[in-house]
Amino acid sequence: MEKRAAYAEEDYWGRPVPGFGDPLAGLLVLGLAPAAHGGNRTGRVFTGDRSGDWLFAAMHRAGYANQPTSVAVDDGLALRGAWVSAAVRCAPPDNKPTPDERDRCVSTWLVPELSLLPRLVVVLALGQFAWDVAWRLLGAGPKPRFGHGAVAALGAGSGPRWLLGSYHVSQQNTFTGKLTEPMLDAVFASARTLAGS
Question: Cα separation of 168 and 171, whole Å?
Answer without folding.
Answer: 9
